[in-house]
Amino acid sequence: xxxxxxxxxxxxxxxxxxxxxxxxxxxxxxxxxxxxxxxxxxxxxxxxxxxxxxxxxxxxxxxxxxxxxxxxxxxxxxxxxxxxxxxxxxxxxxxxxxxxxxxxxxxxxxxxxxxxxxxxxxxxxxxxxxxxxxxxxxxxxxxxxxxxxxxxxxxxxxxxxxxxxxxxxxxxxxxxxxxxxxxxxxxxxxxxxxxxxxxxxxxxxxxxxxxxxxxxxxx
Length: 219
Fold this sequence. Notes:
Elements: H1 3-7, H2 10-46, E1 51-57, E2 63-69, H3 85-88, H4 91-98, H5 106-112, E3 116-118, E4 144-146, H6 159-171, H7 175-191, H8 206-218
Parallel strand pairs: 3-4
Antiparallel strand pairs: 1-2
Helix pairs in contact: 2-5
């Protein structure tokens, strides 16, 4: 199914947003006590702010503010610059990342319409110039909390494979696929499977990856 076909299909055009809203409201009601406890722990252990905010590209590559629970301190070195992530990540932060609890505030993004429950993960703004024409299709739908590449390796996938999965998801959006991805995500979270607590230790930035590809082609 092409992206144009998706626009004329009920689920991608309207049903998916309704599905997101219903499940998100139910999830927030169930998870409210957990969210409150985690927010208190982060405030006590890491201080304010409780939420980490970062600008990411969303639908049609429009910037939005992504919310997560904060997992790192603001510790700086003698030069006044922030210390490496590994030195700022706390035990609480590592636990939140390992269990994916740090991602739960993204449910707020779903309510706001910035994201969906399922879709290509919103990556860095700086990656936009490095996508191929086909890969830019990943931004023709709302980004998701989880997605096809997240249940098939996450950061352990090579970039080309990961981005191709994002595009294939966009081209074949369906209710059945979204339900399947959500269920598989749930069981992966329980097993803490394919979670990279420090993503930079298992993969390089897309910009660096694409620059290395250019170098190889020029040899």
